[in-house]
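Quick one: structure tokens for this chain, please?
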Amino acid sequence: MKYQVPQFIDVEDKIFGPLTFKQFVYLAGGAGLAFTLYSVLPLFIAIIFIAPVAILAVALAFYKVNNKPFIFVLGSAIKYFAGSKLYIWKKRDNIKKDTPTTEEKKIGEQYIPKLSDSKLKELAWSLGIKDSIYSEQESNKIRKQ
């Protein structure tokens, strides 16, 4: 059976002409608030308040920052300015035990744990350990001479 796979699922549908539902709501809300300010306040004072409302409505509807809608930037800005700005770094003490377990083998002063995730990782790890042990033995021989 063949099924049709939906394409472009991240694109919003255009409901009101060239506008999506969200864009329409932002513009309609801005226009409604602008009309309310115009009818309640005198014209000169209303224009002072209507301009920022209109700019905000247009920015919410159309402006994108890094391909993200402006509402995310506005929400992050409000959260930043309203939140605490005291950042304290606390160092965590992750102390591991140096005692060998039953899975570890002792070679000189080094412990080699048994790796079982992958044979390739185990081989690479053992080669690295053997190389370091070989270089230690060579340096010990040079010191003795």
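The chain has a mean pLDDT of 79.
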